[in-house]
């Protein structure tokens, strides 16, 4: 299980690797060992987290100390006849984080803002920090609907939790068109989206709460582009997909975060 160091966790950038539906269980352990070495080396300045497939979550969790672990998706009920689903309650001892409302869940599996709200509440109930994903499609961006989409996803997605819970939660801005496409969002667009998210949370829960929420960026991040997002004061870390499966890439991103990225200013 993840061991917290004495430096305030809020001031460290969070570098999270979403392994999606990749790697066997032994392969996951192998990659986790490599990541752990880097996470331990930079534990004072960076928080590292990995999100293996659920078949490997428990074994990965048992071999890391400086790396947080998380689950890629959960169901919103705590138990019951829901074949194939995993409850937050079932993973609460091996998952520090849960990704909620990833765009692949929304657009491949039909999740709505309402299910995101229920899943976020299930995380809080089970002491797992939710990473709530929001982001617009290409069509929505072209129609100038980005602000509206982000406002809707935030206002419905966080509706079932308290301001105290929101303060400890993480939001990942992942524009759908930038995920797995190699298409990089411009840092100024990411900063603008992060400000929209911050404003929406501020209006709902108050400025003090909004100031504590960490906002990550995700979408085709590589070791080459990581720095341009980590340098943004609006961004507190990265949610990395494809590059997190490549040991050297992910290690380089952690190192970049340690070397001056993301002075979040949030505490
Ligand atoms: P890529 O980095 O592969 O674009 O994926 C981003 C993502 O979806 C992380 O959750």
Low-confidence stretches are 1-9, 262-267
Counted by DSSP, the helix tally is 12
Structural class: alpha/beta
Gross morphology = globular
The rounded Rg comes to 17 Å
Whole-number count of domains: 1
Molecular structure report:
This protein is α/β, with parallel strands linked by helices. It has a single domain, classed as Aldolase class I (TIM Barrel, Alpha-Beta Barrel). The protein is 43% helix and 14% strand. It is built from 12 helices and 8 strands. The chain has helices spanning 25-41, 54-63, 88-91, 103-109, 113-125, 138-142, 146-157, 163-167, 187-205, 207-212, 226-230, 247-258, and strands at residues 14-18, 47-51, 67-71, 97-100, 129-134, 170-173, 214-217, 237-240. An 8-stranded parallel beta barrel has the order 1-2-3-4-5-6-7-8, surrounded by 6 helices. Strand 3, helix 3 and strand 4 (97-100) form a beta-alpha-beta unit. Helix 7 (146-157) packs across helix 9 (187-205). The structure holds 1,3-dihydroxyacetonephosphate (13P). 1,3-dihydroxyacetonephosphate binds at residues 18, 102, 174, 179-180, 218-221, 239-243.
Question: Which key phrases capture this entry?
Answer:
disordered C terminus, alpha/beta, single chain, eight-stranded parallel barrel, TIM Barrel, disordered N terminus, 267 residues, 43% helix
Structural topology:
Blueprint: E1 14-18, H1 25-41, E2 47-51, H2 54-63, E3 67-71, H3 88-91, E4 97-100, H4 103-109, H5 113-125, E5 129-134, H6 138-142, H7 146-157, H8 163-167, E6 170-173, H9 187-205, H10 207-212, E7 214-217, H11 226-230, E8 237-240, H12 247-258
Parallel strand pairs: 1-2, 1-8, 2-3, 3-4, 4-5, 5-6, 6-7, 7-8
Helix pairs in contact: 1-2, 1-12, 5-7, 7-9
1,3-dihydroxyacetonephosphate binds at residues 18, 102, 174, 179-180, 218-221, 239-243.
